[in-house]
Automatic annotation (TrEMBL):
The keyword Transferase applies. InterPro entries: LipidA_mod_glycosyltrf_83. Its main location: membrane. It comes from Albimonas pacifica. It is a multi-pass membrane protein. The lineage of its organism: Bacteria, Pseudomonadati, Pseudomonadota, Alphaproteobacteria, Rhodobacterales. This is 4-amino-4-deoxy-L-arabinose transferase. GO terms for biological process: lipopolysaccharide biosynthetic process; response to iron(III) ion.
Length: 635
């Protein structure tokens, strides 16, 4: 007589059964799948967009450069104050400028307006994943892959930051989807019946796109079936009952998305598509993956029309320096050395992927043997090529940042979705235990930090944030139990629930409450009354974070000690921020000005905060000269 399952396992199984039943009903129709994905995206990506202060340093630099575009009307030459920003193309700046202009312009507008393109890019990535993968694996598995992509921790984070990566992923997946659908236009008119894989088991994945077929042997093995291993045939077309997009339209979508992606972040999207093409070519030994690109069509013309005009304009505006900065100073530097103190040894991403793609990353450990066993399949070959090759590329690159894994996230999610929708044998015991531990460690750290950090820093915690964190931790516990016992259905359901609870708890409540960790926001608020008196933003000597320029205004001057001393001596109404740890530099500069007696200084206000970029607590004081008339009436 077998032992009765524990209460946590029974709860997890019950929740998994309810979630699967709901998902099955949702997945029956295209419009319900779309609504479900949209609701999921909004629940994950909108929390924190307005309440999380602007972050340093990349987001603040992007946002400030966009603000200056709107202030100056120069939409070609990208600058942060007077410093050129030629390391990245112009696409994301144009998108941010459009979103900010649509809500009234930069004056008095919060950072949320700059983040709109990132939110839209993340939503586009989720929908494009479902669209791209449907011809490969069927509607239900593609729907699941899109959902897994949506709940990736890294995508939720990038959706809340005004920079390139979320939009880049969305455009990349649109291009990939158009290429996949161009492949499926040639070949059989419908998907094949179940086939036998190398392990000898028949895999029958329910697919609303495929008609029912009689069981038995003698069926021709189609390598473009989601689980085929052998290769050698052209891909099947989509269900003939649905209208198919015109080939020219698909090629225009493919090359248009590639063009926009290149304008957003250079060659990343073409590289991802190239990995998919090469992976399928290796599996098929056919030129069909290359022919589907449509080099001899109007697609490349559209690509050139989108990309070349700005490249010519920025070449002329920068006297050719754009190529030196973007290719030599950014791209090649990242390949050659750890840029901006972000260097790390190979193997780093294997250690952090469990957090970057949490909550479903531990499922990669379980799905990997299946993905490798079916590596010649229509669905598996391009996805495995993207996921594996991109991982090797970024591991070999000295510069390491967590979001570098993002371009491979949908491909990895697709492989996991194929495994989840396949009746394969249970994973080995050690795999289940390892997956449960990895899932629980990251989830527990996220949930506990949501409660502990605000309590430690502020002495209080948001009630709603704490409630969401506790709910999330409960689902993390249930999910760990499900993984430990190899219950795939229950594990996946609890992963979605944990993400839906913990991400808003972190982004909407915990992080915005940690004002101590955002010095620029505190400084801008403290200096605002004095800036109103003198009619200009305060200067800063040693604290040089770009978020301060964005919050105080483009006119904020980043001064050297001698310049700060000159301002305090000579300006009619000086305002200078100075860190205590650099006060000696200012005092020395004041004593070197040649006058017998340095001017008497008055402290207007001070801020003590944690600077995450420096990794320490800092105290900053806003100084002026004694007897300055415009500041006499200020508080």
């Amino acid at each position: 007589m077998s032992a009765r399952p524990s209460l946590p396992l029974r709860l997890a199984e019950r929740f998994g059964a309810l979630a699967q039943d709901a998902a099955r009903r949702v997945a029956e129709r295209g419009w319900t799948r779309g609504l479900a994905l949209l609701a999921l995206c909004l629940a994950l990506f909108l929390p924190g967009i307005a309440d999380l202060p602007v972050t340093d340093r990349d987001e603040a630099r992007f946002a400030q450069a966009t603000k200056q575009m709107l202030e100056t009307g120069d939409y070609v030459d990208i600058r942060f104050q007077d410093e050129p920003r030629w390391k990245k193309p112009v696409g994301i700046y144009w998108m941010q400028a459009a979103s900010v202009a649509a809500v009234g312009g930069p004056e008095g507008t919060g950072i949320w307006a700059w983040r709109i393109p990132s939110v839209l890019g993340a939503i586009l990535a989720v929908f494009a994943t479902a669209w791209a993968f449907r011809p490969l694996m069927g509607a239900q598995a593609a729907f699941l892959a899109a959902g897994l992509t949506a709940i990736s921790l890294v995508l939720a984070g990038e959706a809340n930051i005004a920079k390139t990566d979320a939009m880049l992923l969305g455009l990349t997946m649109v291009a990939l989807g158009a290429w996949v659908r161009l492949l499926t236009r040639s070949g059989l008119a419908s998907a094949p019946p179940p086939i036998e894989i190398a392990a000898g088991r028949a895999l029958d994945v329910p697919d609303p796109d495929a008609p029912a077929a009689p069981a038995g042997k003698g069926w021709k093995v189609d390598p473009y079936h989601p689980h085929a291993v052998r290769a050698g045939a052209l891909p099947p077309a989509e269900d003939a009952r649905r209208p198919r997009p015109d080939a020219l339209a698909l090629r225009l979508i493919l090359w248009g998305a590639l063009g926009l992606a290149v304008l957003v972040k250079g060659p990343i999207a073409p590289a991802i598509l190239a990995l998919a093409v090469l992976g399928l070519w290796i599996a098929e030994r056919s030129l069909a993956p290359f022919r589907a690109l449509g080099f001899a069509s109007w697609g490349p013309v559209l690509f050139a029309v989108l990309v070349i005009p700005w490249l010519v304009a920025i070449h002329l505006a920068s006297d050719g320096m754009f190529w030196i900065e973007s290719v030599g100073g950014d791209f090649l530097d990242k390949l050659a050395s750890g840029q901006e103190k972000h260097g790390a040894p190979p193997g780093t991403y294997f250690g952090v992927v469990w957090a970057v793609l949490w909550p479903w990353a531990p499922l990669i450990l379980l799905a990997a043997p299946f993905a490798w066993r079916t590596r010649g399949a229509r669905a598996t070959a391009p996805l495995l090529a993207i996921a594996l090759a991109w991982w090797l590329i970024v591991e070999a690159t000295p510069t390491k940042l967590p979001h570098y894994l993002l371009p491979a996230a949908p491909a990895a999610a697709g492989l996991v979705a194929l495994w989840l929708t396949s009746p394969v044998a249970a994973p080995r015991r050690w795999q289940s235990i390892a997956a449960a531990i990895l899932f629980a460690l990251v989830g527990a750290a996220l949930g506990l930090a949501t409660i502990v950090l605000p309590l430690y820093v502020n002495g209080t915690v948001s009630v709603w944030g704490a409630i969401l964190a506790v709910v999330g931790l409960a689902f993390v516990a249930l999910g760990a139990v499900a993984l430990w016992n190899a219950q795939r259905r229950a594990a996946v359901a609890t992963m979605f629930a944990a993400a839906l609870a913990l991400y808003p708890a972190v982004l909407q409540f915990a992080l915005p409450s940690l004002t101590w960790g955002f010095p620029s926001a505190l400084m801008a608020s403290a200096a605002a009354p004095y800036e109103a008196c003198v009619g200009r933003p305060a200067d800063t000597q040693s604290y040089r974070e770009p978020s301060l320029v964005f919050l105080q205004g483009t006119g904020t001057r980043l001064l050297q000690p001698a310049e700060a001393a000159r301002s305090l001596r000579e300006d009619p109404a000086p305002l200078v921020w100075i860190e205590d740890r650099r006060r000696d530099q200012l005092d020395e500069a004041l004593n070197l000005t040649g006058e017998a007696q340095p001017p008497a200084l008055r402290e207007l206000t001070s801020v003590t905060a944690f600077n995450p970029n420096r990794g320490g607590v800092t105290t900053l004081r806003l100084l002026t000269r004694e007897g300055v008339e415009p500041l006499a009436a200020c508080p």
